[in-house]
Automatic annotation (TrEMBL), chain A:
The lineage of its organism: Bacteria, Bacillati, Actinomycetota, Actinomycetes, Micrococcales. This is Alternate-type signal peptide domain-containing protein.
TrEMBL record, chain B:
This is Alternate-type signal peptide domain-containing protein. It comes from Mycetocola manganoxydans.
Amino acid sequence: MKKPTRTLIASSVAAALGVALLLGGAGSLAFWSDSSTSTPQTISSGTLDLGSTSEVKIGATPTIKNCTSPTSCSASGAYSGGPLVPGDVVTATVSIPVTLIGQNMKARFSVAPTKTAGAVNTTATEADTALASAMTITIKKVEQTNFAGVADAAQSVILSSTAKRDIPVTVDVSFPWGATAGQYNDAMGGKVSLGATYTLEQIPA
Amino acid sequence: MATRSSKLRAPVTKPVALALTALVAAAALIGGPVTMAYWNDATEQTPQQIESGLLSITAGITATYFDLASASDVASTVSAPSAQGLIPGKRGQKITYTLASGSGDAVQSRILGSISAPATSVWTEIYSKGYLAVNAETVGECTVNQTPGAPSWVIGNAPGQTLKPGESCKVTVTLSIPAVANISGKNVDVSRALLNLRGSASLNPLVDFAANATLAQVPRAEEN
């Protein structure tokens, strides 16, 4: 066999052996290894929830006072639910159950007052319509946040993650005294249905 | 032909698929901020019904005649005109106005009103010559003050006085004509003088007194 031929054969054998060693090492021989599987970690999604209508409750006894101007009012007393007259301001606190669960959970809690002339599911009379027009609902306070008090305007606060708890919302229901005698005479004997829509909306943390 | 058709279809399928994918992606992007990308919840409070109260006034009138020489009154009856009318020195008249706040009213109120009569020439003459004696007094939650120099009155309330629901204010106007009036130091036979003024001795209405009044709501801070 000529030298170049021997050299070529020797090189081929060496290369083949090298490949075999490399392959074998990768499989089981060249280094140690071990493996284990961790206990599964369960990730839960959070919760954003407003209580149902039945859970919404009126807090401490509503109070009533009579004001001929913003700075001239009678002393407050317990409101027993009787008919309102011009100047009356009824203050009530409603508790809204809220649940916000999640480390980065933040939400805007909004309260939008609503009023409808007449009793629920009845045709409004002229007095009902006049009363609904005259009366105002003002959100005064949501939890610890006080508001300047814009009549019939929605208000909102930002809430952070919390287990289920009640958010107190304080509202004033006002029947204005009027600028002139008899201004609201057409609202005598009227009925109005007052309510509110509560919204909880997630915002970026 | 079929082969050609199939070749034509192939390039069309890709753009359609791409368009659909884009559409779905766009819908997901648009829909996300509104309803899908974050959570929200809402609830409505059960409406609470509020009612407004009332403030009302009712007015009534009664008239009685009385014998000037007696303390007893005689009820007025429309069907017996001969029993009515002022007779100088003989018969006087009392007119009582009852002004009441409604029993179902929601507030206390103050009253403001008047009692007056149209100024007919004969009536004015009789009064101005001093032939007519008039007086008004109240029972209940009001006061009455005569307008100086005129047979008319203003009804009101004393300071701090209010009408509670169902309460009333009664104003009685008493009218009489004396048989003889002393005018400027002279005794005048009023019967004759009236006959001369009216031109007739028959029953003839001289005047109609009318009362009108308004109740105004009292701020609760001023209720008593």
